[in-house]
Write a structure and sequence with these properties.
With about 500 residues, the chain is an alpha/beta fold. Strands 7-6-16-17-18-15-19 form a 7-stranded mixed β-sheet. It has a 5-stranded parallel β-sheet with strand order 9-2-1-13-21, with helices on one face. It has a 3-stranded antiparallel β-sheet with strand order 10-11-12, with no helix packed on it. β16 and β17 form a beta hairpin. It is globular, with a radius of gyration of 22 Å.
């Protein structure tokens, strides 16, 4: 039985481990943190759960290989309750209101009533939302190993999704916003994705909801990570927590295993690096081993950017009129560093009673952070007192915005926790604190990097940084792809 050592116990590493265990390999996962899951996580403050990851789960609906993979790794189970996501989000501002409902015909009707002069733009938008509903994440084998017959099996995906992407080729989220005459719609479409990213990303995300394939597993992200870790251990895998890895030990064109931070050497026939890509090639492996496609993304920052967020979680003493799920509104404004933000919003977790204390309301508010804004967080973190003071200042400003919009919350809101790009870098080795992978701009094709290293025959890569703009589905698929490559080399079926 061949032994595979996996560096990183996030969803990608655990998916690889489960597939390999099911295929007859011996595997061990080494994770630096005290819990598995990576960025698929949550935590408690003052006994209240705070969720970090799942706002909706793509491919939560039966009928795709990604859904099958969710079930295989334990993300989804037969007895798990799903919270139906009946809307993408709501926005109130500029004297109007729009909700992007799961029912797209209802949304279309509301948009046309709000702005009949935008009829042509609205018609095009929904035409391509319908096309994007065919979006799937192929998981049978790596994309670079797929032939014409494999693509033919993708059916509507191969026909409809490229058409939707082509319809918005060279169009950014900001461009899509500018195409509307209504200031309500202009503001709304810029709220969920970075403005410089491709417009198709917004359309695809909304189509995930309208297709009924974006529901939310009850219990949140930490419960999901725990299910997956348990599935891995039940399959016979060994999960080592609090075990940071120093580097992969290389002997010529082969890796003989890994070296832990405490100096312990672990031998292996294969190694999978399922960590942040930048960390992999600045700590685990020589930088010169980075695949060219991946290096291009790091080097071409004008076309492949990253972003992060400042988050704050709050507990409201009592129930409120704040709608469950995601709501935005036009506010008096808040200044985050040098940028004035008018449109703000909250996630209200009332949709999941298992993570909401009885008689209370749990909220999160977050602001995207770009470029120099991210740099300022890292610079400020060098002075812990100033760093904590800045987080407190912003959290209090957020409370004022919530109280203004929902007066019944006045004097009832307490801060549970705040976290920044620095938090993601510290906990997950995240490059520039980015919890998602590269954002390709409107003039650039997204890049999928094969998870192989030409200089090494038995080391493979996994993780969200290899595929598109990242997230849970690509990260999970890449974990299976790393397992598939090892199975292929050994001549066994990848299960």
């Amino acid at each position: 039985m061949k032994k595979v050592v996996i560096v990183g116990g996030g969803i990608s590493g655990m998916a690889a481990g489960i597939c390999l265990q099911n295929s007859g390999f011996e595997t061990e996962i080494y994770e630096k943190n005290p819990v598995a899951g990576g960025e698929l996580t949550g935590w408690k403050r003052d006994g209240v759960y705070i969720d970090n990851c799942i706002d909706w789960l793509m491919c939560s609906k039966e009928g795709s290989t990604m859904h099958d993979l969710w079930c295989e790794i334990g993300m989804l189970t037969d007895d798990l309750k799903m919270k139906e996501k009946n809307k993408f989000f709501t926005y109130k501002g500029h004297g109007g209101e729009i909700t992007f409902w799961r029912d797209k015909e209802r949304t279309k009707k509301e948009m046309l009533a709000l702005s009949p002069e935008d009829k042509d733009v609205i018609e095009k938008f929904f035409e391509n939302v319908i096309r994007a509903e065919s979006m799937i994440v192929p998981t049978d084998k790596p994309m670079d190993k797929m032939g014409p017959r494999d693509f033919m099996k993708l059916g509507d995906f191969a026909k409809n999704v490229p058409a939707a992407q082509k319809a918005y080729k060279g169009v950014s989220v900001k461009d899509l916003s500018d195409s509307f005459k209504s200031p309500v719609l202009q503001s709304a479409v810029k709220l969920m994705h970075p403005e410089n990213t491709q417009a198709y990303s917004f359309i695809m995300s909304y189509a995930t909801i309208t297709s009924g394939s974006g529901d939310i597993p009850e219990g949140g992200s930490l419960a999901a990570a725990t299910r997956i870790a348990n599935r891995y251990k039940e399959a016979g895998g060994k999960l080592h927590l609090n075990s940071p890895v120093k580097n992969v030990k290389i002997d010529g064109k082969l890796a003989s295993g890994i070296v832990l931070e405490d100096g312990t050497e672990v031998k292996a026939d294969y190694v999978i690096c399922a960590t942040d890509a930048n960390h992999t090639f600045t700590h685990l492996l020589p930088a010169s081993y980075m695949p060219k496609k991946l290096k291009k993304c790091f080097d071409t920052k004008e076309h492949f950017s990253t972003f992060s967020k400042f988050h704050a979680a709050f507990l409201v003493d009592g129930k409120t009129s704040i709608p469950a799920d995601t709501s935005f509104w036009e506010s008096k404004g808040i200044k985050v560093w040098d940028r004035e933000i008018k449109d703000v919003g909250v996630i209200c977790y009332d949709y999941d009673e298992t993570i909401t204390p009885e008689g209370k309301t749990v909220l999160q508010m977050k602001f995207m952070q770009y470029n120099d804004e991210v740099d300022k967080w890292f610079e400020l973190a060098k002075d812990r007192e100033k760093y904590e003071a800045k987080k407190k200042e912003l959290a209090n400003a957020m409370i004022a915005l919530i109280e203004e919009q929902y007066p019944e919350t006045a004097g009832k809101i307490t801060v549970l926790d705040t976290w920044t790009p620095v938090t993601y870098a510290r906990l997950c080795n995240a490059y520039r604190g980015a919890y998602m992978a590269f954002v390709a701009d409107k003039d650039t094709k997204t890049v999928t990097t094969p998870g192989v290293i030409k200089q090494l025959k038995n080391v493979f890569l996994a993780g969200q940084w290899l595929m598109g703009s990242g997230g849970l589905p690509p990260a999970t698929a890449q974990g299976k792809f790393a397992a598939w490559r090892i199975c292929k080399k050994e001549g066994v079926e990848c299960k």
